[in-house]
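Example record used in the benchmark description.
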Amino acid sequence: MTRSQIENDRALPLGTARTRRAVCFFALSAAAILIPYYSIARAQTTGATSNAAGVLAGNTENGKRIFEAQACSTCHGSQGQGGLPNPEKEDGAPRIGPTRLSPPAFAGFVRNPIGRMPPYPSKSVSDAELADLYAFLQSLAVAPKAEIASANPQNGQRLFTTYGCYECHGNEGQGSTQTGGSRIGPIRIPFPAFVVYVRQPTAQMPPYAAKAVSDADLADIYVFLQSRPESKPAKSIPLLNQ
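Model output (structure tokens):
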């Protein structure tokens, strides 16, 4: 689907636009999310600590110092906006301010990156420094105009269906190998980073401004995804253990 088609769809009623869009609301590509499932598996050895909300606890000021000291801005920009060193090329560094990765995936990717990014072992950047760096990157997000504490998961489920998110990610956000939609339920990234991705996505997903999908709607969708059950471990599935 071309950008002009996407823009034309914006002018149509929601139901009509949804039926014409081939790209669903949350079609995240592997490049866009930096292979988080690979990263999560590798992140188990980092030992990074997190708070009750699942966000790495860290010092934002020290995180900013580490960001500058490790020259992260050379590729990712002073505000983590990405696109460097050559914004004209599609293979520019991704936006990481705020990062769209969960804390474990972020730690795993820094330790074992893919592409052109060099690895940063613990002797170069400690787990505590990673926590500070993560906190700094998350602080770059503009505060959403909604609170997830008062969000409605039932309405979020309705919106998840209305916007056609289930078409790629399944009714429970479980993802699909057929559509390429990643698993987003239960969601792992903080709410501000979730909003940033919806507003400024990468790959095939078109951006959704606040006038199209409000922060309040996104909060409802977020808590719905947050309420989804965890996937069963492979060892508990008999077919996978034959």
